[in-house]
Specification:
- The longest helix has 37 residues.
- It is flat, with a radius of gyration of 31 Å.
- 65% of the residues lie in helices and 0% in strands.
- The protein is mostly helical and 98 residues long.
- It has 3 helices and no strands.
Length: 98
Amino acid sequence: MKKFALAFVPAVFALAACGSTEDASADAEADTVEMPADEALEPVTEEPVDAPVAEPVAQETDAAADAAAADADQAAEAAAAAAADVAAEAAAASESAQ
């Protein structure tokens, strides 16, 4: 318990150093509250831009999706084999340790 308390003390001092000296009971000033609201109510003077025209998607997307799925399946099989190897090594290590 003392170790926890000793580790907690520096964190408390670090957080205390980050504190602010401003008084929380001070009222909000008009410059900080009303100025952003006034900017939002100004009229828009910019002209709208034309939206880009979407190009048709090639029919090769199905082939690309199939290739991506095959790559994902191969990666999953490789990950499963690697996990099985690690599990076998861990089991062998635990048997030799006993």
